[in-house]
Amino acid sequence: MLKAGVLGAGHLGKIHLKLLKQSEKYDLVGFYDANQQASLEIEKEFGYKSFPSMEALIDACEMVVVVTPTSTHFACAEKVIKAGKHIFIEKPITQTVTEAEQIRDLAKKHKVRGQVGQVERFNPAFTAIKDKITNPMFIETHRLAEFNPRGTDVSVVLDLMIHDIDAILSVVKSDVKNVSASGVSVLSETPDIANARIEFENGCVANLTASRISLKKMRKARFFQRDAYISVDFLEKKCEVVKMKDAPKDADDFAMVLTNAEGVKKQIYFENPKVENNNAILDELESFAEAIKADRVPEVSLGQGTEALRVAMMIIENFRKI
């Protein structure tokens, strides 16, 4: 078991503490939070050990989870990595691309493993369908949430859309060619609703919409590729594949057959891959433990986290041009 600690004991930090405690792959050492009063209350209520300083916690661990505000990610990660400890850092990896690149390179220099908390990569609907997404050429995503003051210190792009940016980058095997976007600040000082169009070198186009002022929740993605349409509902944890193949000459009466303008007949097939229920945050933490043990690149590496942030910042820069 890996000795693990958590930096930051807010809403998400408490979730990480609970899951690390129940995991058979980790030995939870404790946590550090700058709010001493809150730390005492958490220690009293849950029994997790509160450390007097960040350095004391890092010294006691083999792996540290960073769940502090994004503005502090770089400073925390730098201390963890320089101490030679493995690091799991919540999204977005850092506040700037330069900081992310430094963290990525620092981890390589100190020979430690790092993973970014992009939880949707471990969503069972996405993992059930990912292997079927082979060469998407058009992608559309909608991530809508009701307003919550927590997280509004950053743009909706870094708060919500980055989940879809990361998922898209994981399946499109091509460099980003161009980004265009628009965003509107409604309640916050930063954009609360945004739309972005990402064009890739291979011709793929992704259209992303994110809102944190919606009246209903939605987390859906649709992938279109040659002879197939794939949908993922991250919220309801459902997925579907609609495939089109050349229709047989003797198609039965109940078969769905379409004929295009050239007279080519295609038969439609529906697939609903089995979705296994899981705890995605626990899965990503345990996946990281396995990567450390096997000394292999984690599922969501620091490099991938850096690229997701790079695209997110390209989108945000587009807002400023409007």
From TrEMBL:
Residues 151-216 form the GFO/IDH/MocA-like oxidoreductase domain. Pfam families: GFO_IDH_MocA, GFO_IDH_MocA_C3. SUPFAM superfamilies: Glyceraldehyde-3-phosphate dehydrogenase-like, C-terminal domain, NAD(P)-binding Rossmann-fold domains. Residues 3-117 form the Gfo/Idh/MocA-like oxidoreductase N-terminal domain. InterPro entries: Gfo/Idh/MocA-like_OxRdtase_N, Gfo/Idh/MocA_Oxidoreductases, GFO_IDH_MocA-like_dom, NAD(P)-bd_dom_sf. It comes from the Bacteria. This is Gfo/Idh/MocA family oxidoreductase. It comes from Aequorivita echinoideorum. The lineage of its organism: Bacteria, Pseudomonadati, Bacteroidota, Flavobacteriia, Flavobacteriales.
